[in-house]
Amino acid sequence: MDQAETVRTPSSWVVVGLDNGGTCNNATVLDATGQFLVSDLVENPSRVLEGPESAVEALAEAFGNILELTRTPLSLVRAVGLDTPGPASAHGVISSKGATNFNQVSWHGFDIRGALETRLGLPVVYNNDGNAAALYAHHQHFGAEAAASSSVSAIVGTGLGGGVVEAGHVVRGAAGMAGELGHVQIPLHGVLEEGQPVPMCNCGFAGDVESIASLTGIKNNLLPYWLTRFPDHPLAAEPIPQAAKALRGYGEKEDPMALAVFGQQAKAIGKLFTIAANFTDPSAYFLGGGVVEAAPHFRQWFLNSVRESTDLRDEQKAVATFALVPDRDMAGARGAAVAALKSVTPL
Fold this sequence. Notes:
This is ROK family protein. It comes from Actinoplanes sichuanensis. Belongs to the ROK (NagC/XylR) family. The chain is of the alpha/beta class. It has 2 domains: 3-122, ATPase, nucleotide binding domain (Nucleotidyltransferase, domain 5, 2-Layer Sandwich); 143-327, ATPase, nucleotide binding domain (Nucleotidyltransferase, domain 5). The protein is built from 10 helices and 10 strands. It has helices at 3-6, 52-69, 112-120, 129-142, 215-229, 240-252, 256-279, 296-309, 314-317, 331-344; strands at 14-20, 24-31, 43-45, 77-84, 124-128, 150-156, 160-166, 169-170, 284-289, 321-324. Helix 4 packs across helix 10 (331-344) and helix 6 (240-252) crosses helix 7 (256-279). The two termini are 35 Å apart.
């Protein structure tokens, strides 16, 4: 990248955002004026498969690298925002049952927020990755009106993450599990074809949103069914995991089977947003994840399909916005930084 164009030096004190993923960490810096100092991904290997000690050290490396890149003195850093995949508590303790990215026993019940705070010697504010992306989408969309607005976000990836933001703040819940929108069970009428098996989620639920609107849902549930309807499709010759990953490329080319699969995903998210409309009546509905990283015409079609599948009252239609989560892969780190900034300058 051209660092002269995409990297700035701080004009004030700052916070750092660290987005931890299964493969890479992404880092950013946000200064007190609300300016991000980098406009591109700044990544390093996350090393989560090597266990907690290596992963925390990799996060510390990401922290050091982003300060060096932006020429930010350590003395200017007031807090660090961290996000990871869930499930985890509101304070960053990984679930005692582990998670997709934290599957070794050494991760079960590990306090990743506390460990990073000890390693860096700075306050660390934690969110799961869905909440971080939701928070960034909310503040980027509403700007100065963020504190007076509410939103719900669905983040489609390997699973389905999400977040609920009320008055500019992430709704965490008593155990930190609020906003786990992927595991909301939805009515399947109008989503599934006649005779299509009820999708099962890895969590054990039948017919929750993640069982349909996720890469895992495509692999385990949707694609095996639709290949019986399109037996001559080129993907029928591929192993299901590879075929599931390749499906979005076919969707971008308006392939009928791919559009049928993604159409069901859009309907499922529409059912989820319909439920959200009756719980929180948000000002905005945001959609993020892999579909946002697709070709512009495809992601607009998907967003339009979600909007059409969301059953709102006329009064709600008049005031609600549907939008894509901005800045794609950077949303997690940026949302983590926004959370850190809010922690030292509370609204």
